[in-house]
Amino acid sequence: MNAKTAKPPKTTPLDRILQSQGFGTRRYCGDLVAAGMVEVEGELCEDPRAEFVLEGLRLTVDGEDWVCHDKAYLMLHKPTGYECSQRPLHHPSVYTLLPVPLRERGVQAVGRLDQDTTGLLLLSDDGQFIHAQTSPKRKVPKVYEVATAEPVIEAQAAALREGVQLEDEPAPIAALACEIVGERALRLTLAEGKYHQVKRMVAAAGNHVAALHRSRIGGLALDPALAPGEWRWLTPADLAELARKD
Ligand code: URA
């Protein structure tokens, strides 16, 4: 595309941008702007109909900095003691770890981790992305760091690589990879995301999970800069890693 034929980027009124980001109804967002509570790229803007390019727009809303994204793609370092449910039963929800606008715009976890599992959890409000990442057909590999209750023996790792029979499953399930990485530590790569799959597989192999951490989904590793409970936006490079089909 040359400069003459390039279309100007699409612009959107500020009240609509705020609404899309989860700040409330269009009317409420318009009132926020008119009340002088919104800065755009560091400048006060009091006109709810002023138009801007949404993607990457930097706002300050009632003193809080916000970068606008058309779709939300996030990684969270899930801590222990949080449930991946909107209506948790026994522990707080992982959604309480996100800013209110992200919850309001309907961000959802891509699959679930148990309340006592830590590590990489993706979240998004893009239904197609969630479907692609969780579809059993795509077999996105997920890597788990497993602390075991008993010392691991090679026969257990071999059983996990060759396949173990789980209750209610028609055939044995094999890990894509399984290596012993410590006296009581395994690194397990799975293609599926069945209920309590790691715990059930390790139990079927004759050991027991003492602690579980997901370190990687496809080509994307948990960002070591994120402490438990912290989240960040996925970058275009992160999304490219997740889209890779190899
Ligand atoms: N397998 C489990 O048993 N638990 C998790 O949280 C994830 C995978």
TrEMBL record:
Single Gene Ontology MF annotation: 16S rRNA pseudouridine(516) synthase activity
Protein EC: 5.4.99.-
EC main group: isomerase
Residue ranges of every copy of the Pseudouridine synthase RsuA/RluA-like domain listed in the record: 73-204
GO biological process, one term: rRNA processing
Protein name as it appears in the record: Pseudouridine synthase
SUPFAM superfamilies from the UniProt entry: Alpha-L RNA-binding motif, Pseudouridine synthase
Keyword ATP-binding attached: no
Keywords: Isomerase, RNA-binding
Reaction(s) this enzyme catalyzes, per UniProt: uridine(516) in 16S rRNA = pseudouridine(516) in 16S rRNA
Pfam families: PseudoU_synth_2
Family as reported in the entry's similarity comment: Belongs to the pseudouridine synthase RsuA family.
